[in-house]
């Protein structure tokens, strides 16, 4: 098994409680460490998705809306901050 990981993922946060928070990711990392599955040779460094790659699965309008959103709640479940778009490119 390989794990795609970047420390940048920890920068996706907001002031309140939300399931997508650094502590959740850190607990997953600790769980993988505890069973010997967090080894350097198992980690892959992500590259940011290109516009062309994004448009294979998302409309240009959708990508632009996410990129230009700013800070706040996009819907009741989705918080967006100044780093969200760039971090999402690494996770795509």
Account of the 3D structure:
With 92 residues, the protein is an alpha+beta fold. It has one domain (3-91). It contains four helices and four strands. A two-stranded parallel ribbon has the order 1-2. β1, α1 (22-34) and β2 form a beta-alpha-beta unit. It is flat, with a radius of gyration of 15 Å. The mean pLDDT is 91.
What's the quick description here?
The chain has 92 residues and is an alpha+beta fold. Helices cover 37% and strands 12% of the residues. The chain has helices spanning 22-34, 51-54, 60-68, 84-91, and strands at residues 3-4, 43-44, 72-75, 78-80.
What topology emerges from the helices and strands here?
Elements: E1 3-4, H1 22-34, E2 43-44, H2 51-54, H3 60-68, E3 72-75, E4 78-80, H4 84-91
The gyration radius over C-alpha positions equals 15 Å
Query: Strand share of the residues?
Result: 5-15%
SS field, number of helical segments: 4
Note the gap between the termini: 18 Å
Taking pLDDT < 50 over at least 5 consecutive residues as the criterion, the unreliable ranges are none
Structural class: alpha+beta
**Multimeric status of the protein:** single chain
Number of domains: 1
């Amino acid at each position: 098994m390989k794990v795609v990981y970047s420390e940048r993922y920890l920068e996706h946060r907001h002031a309140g409680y939300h399931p997508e928070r650094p502590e959740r990711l850190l607990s997953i990392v600790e769980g993988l460490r505890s069973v010997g599955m967090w080894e350097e040779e198992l980690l892959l460094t992500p590259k940011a998705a290109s516009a062309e790659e994004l448009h294979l699965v998302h409309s240009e309008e959708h990508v632009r809306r996410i990129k230009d959103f700013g800070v706040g709640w996009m819907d009741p479940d989705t918080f967006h901050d100044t780093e969200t778009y760039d971090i999402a490119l690494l996770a795509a």
